[in-house]
Amino acid sequence: MDLTGKVAVVTGSGRGLGLAYATELARSGAAVVVNDVDPEVAEAAVRTITDAGGSAVAEVAAVGTSEAAQALVDRAVEEFGRLDVLVNNAGILRDSTLWKMTDDQFDAVITTHLRGTFTCTRAAAIRLREQGEGGRIICIGSPTGQVGNFGQTNYAAAKAGIVGMVRTWAMELARAEITVNAVVPVAATGMTETVPFLKPYVDALQAGEPLPPYARRELAFGSPEDAAGLVAFLASDAAAGITGQAIGIGGDRLALWSHPSEVVVEFADGTGWSADAIADVWPAQFAASQQTVGQQFPEPPK
User: Fold this and answer.
1) Is 201 a catalytic residue?
2) 3-state DSSP call for residue 33?
3) Is 90 helix (H, G, I), strand (E, B) or coil?
4) Distance CA 36, CA 47 (A)
5) Which of 125, 166, 127 is nearest to 145 (CA)?
6) Residues paired with residue 182 on neighbouring β-strands, in sequence order
7) Which of 26, 43, 108, 258 has the lowest CB atom count within 10 Å?
């Protein structure tokens, strides 16, 4: 992908997946505004990119507020003259079961992920529409937002909401030739290294060992760099016809997620559905098609 002349903002790009996205965009020729809440982390990320021959600057801000969003867009324009790509990656975790989750835990995750994606996209969309040359907005989802995960009420709500906004924005921004897509990544990061069944694979990556095919294919699990190519592709001219999609990436696996759709439909004969009528029809017509929750994986090889 040749992104020469493009300018990208990547939120939460000081480390992990965000850094991988920013590094890949820069490697492909884009100038990048790196963002993190920690100045030292942000500057280290910039050095990683510039030492490899890329172009990057840091903007230290906690994503969530309108002011932070505008500062990121303004930094791109001030430093590089324009904006072409926004990658909404910033995120935090505050895991807890429903009955233990505090208001602060819920609000913190919603503010960073959901409100942050909204405010940054709004600021970017205004600038891109003013430029009149199209653009790319890439939002980061999660399998948790698609199917749920135990202990992640706040995170699931935020990530599901992000994909919902992506579908709406794809319609609203189509006339301006601005594509909007969601990437649903799985990778070894600070957010996944505490997941018990992933720990052996995280340890293997940290030790520089290759992952087995089961991890890379069935679990779609790999390094952050494994997920970065999709972001560079969606940022490019080659992806001009792709919008409103949720696309999974991780390890050796690339997947297009479906939109929610009806799986079984029955009709009443002009009377509507009473509770008793639903109870009568459910076992035969609906029960077998009930959907699973959480990610479903095949058993690993013995």
Assistant:
1) no
2) strand
3) coil
4) 14
5) 166
6) 139, 246
7) 258
Helix (H, G, I), strand (E, B) or coil at 253: strand
> Pairing relation of β-strands 246-250 and 85-88?
unpaired
Nearest to 86 by CA among 43, 141, 130, 123: 123
- In order along its 302 residues, the chain shows pLDDT tens digits of 899 999 999 999 999 999 999 999 999 999 999 999 999 999 999 999 999 999 999 999 999 999 999 999 999 999 999 999 999 999 999 999 999 999 999 999 999 999 999 999 999 999 999 999 999 999 999 999 999 999 999 999 999 999 999 999 999 999 999 999 999 999 988 777 777 788 889 889 989 999 999 999 999 999 999 999 999 999 999 999 999 999 999 999 999 999 999 999 999 999 999 999 999 999 999 999 999 999 888 888 87
Catalytic residue among 21, 155, 201, 214: 155
Domains and CATH numbers, the chain: 7-257 (3.40.50.720)
Contact 203, 193 (CB under 8 A): no
Q: Global pTM? A: 0.95
